[in-house]
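**User:** Hello, beginner here. Are you able to go through the protein record under this note? It all follows right here:
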Amino acid sequence: MRCPKAALASHFLTVLVFLSWLVTPLLAQTRVSIVGSGSNVPNHLYSAWIDEFNRKNPNLQVRYLPLGTSESMKQVSEGSGDFGGGEVPLTREQMHRGKLTLVQIPTVLVGIVPIYNLPGSRELNFSGELLANIFLGNIKSWKDPRIVKVNPGTTLPDLPISIVHRTPGKGSNYIFSDFLSKTSPEFRSKIGKSPSPKWPLGADANRGEDMVEKVAATPGSIGYVEVDFARRSDIGYGRVQNAAGRFIKASAASIAAACAALQKSIPADFGISMAYGPGKDAYPVSSFTWLYLPDSSLPPDRSHALRLFLDWTLQDGQLMARNMGYATLAPGLVSRAQAVVSKIQ
């Protein structure tokens, strides 16, 4: 059952879309509004995109509600929004089982980082196995020998570890649990890959901002968040060991390297996991963030507005994202995504 806040937000989105459909003809096509919902992970970027696009296109206005990946997938499949967004790739079944046929395109690349609150300025190393043991509750103290082993020469405090995890239905849950499932057989068998993992312990955080606030307020705590949220705070975030055995810090370059190493394996529908992929410089907890789109069914003026917005995100939007420190799509991927957008009716 969805929580009251999620249900209220869902109802608000439905009303917002209905009103935008109602108002459009009354304005004699002088202004068209398109409404989407999706993940909080790229919210800083999407807010900047939408502000700039709306400023340049006063007759084509976009709104985006960060309701979470799972809720967004549900909304767009039921026709309750013009587009959705998240970090869980749609399966073939999900693309065809709802009221609408859906397609997906990537917009940028994101990286999920472990964040923690320890005295002093420490940039710690983590392996996937180590993180899995922490979030399973097998490692309870920052002085545990398994943490010390991958952080030689670092004096760690004698503090208990407090876990903070995201609430159900989140894209960051999916990326993080995908990585932990690939690096820890125990995590894979007990929890597995999911946007709604059944965490055995820890406190909830609904949004990325909430995660940062809770970790910052609790000495000894650890959580995970998209790197942009960590960069905007004073919280520490660590390096993660990749498949080549190197401890890599998340950056635009290392996240892009994760995609480049898998470039030839990206399928036509863009549904790929980059977690713990190849590449000696690849950050191993990387992913696309996707937009979920109906391939038809929108009124002509709305589908035209949606195509214009999507084309803008794949051109001018990529430059904005790069200037904001995000890992952007390679030219070949941009061309492939533009080809999908051009077919939306």
